[in-house]
Design brief:
about 140 residues; Nucleoside Triphosphate Pyrophosphohydrolase; 3 helices; about 25% helix; globular
Length: about 140
């Protein structure tokens, strides 16, 4: 696996102006949260499902596609939670409903699990934990 700085240089070389991604806090009817252990996450393994937005694609369509491509799970009730910029990267975070066991359908994913709010693994950033708590407290 490449170090984070090398991955960032490769992305910047292929996307010289701006990159954009979309991710989702997917909540099951049992109030469990879907997290994926990503091979390519620079600083920790577990995180929200999502990925880069394709040219001509809306962020909402991108997050629906990414969750389906990575897990086979169809998400519904997709709601925008937050948008932020990090350097030259624009990130859209959504909340959504989803269910089913899901399966690993991407070589970028090492593991897939549904977690209760009090079982969320170490490694999520403070920002991700804040967003997760915000989504769960808003009843989504």
């Amino acid at each position: 696996m490449l170090p984070p700085a090398a991955r960032k240089r490769i992305v910047r070389a292929t996307q010289p102006r701006f990159t954009a991604s979309a991710a989702a806090v997917v909540v099951s009817p049992e109030r469990r949260v879907l997290l994926l252990e990503h091979l390519l996450r620079p600083y920790s393994g577990w995180g929200f499902p999502g990925g880069f937005i394709d040219r001509g694609e809306t962020p909402e369509a991108a997050v629906i596609r990414e969750v389906r491509e990575e897990t086979g799970i169809e998400i519904t009730d997709v709601r925008l939670v937050e948008v932020r910029t990090v350097d030259r990267h624009l990130e859209f975070i959504y909340s959504a409903r989803g269910e089913g066991p899901g399966e690993i359908l991407s070589g970028e994913i090492l593991d897939l699990r549904w977690f209760a709010a009090d079982e969320v693994p170490e490694g999520l950033t403070c920002r991700e934990r804040r967003i997760l708590e915000q989504v769960l407290s808003n009843g989504h």
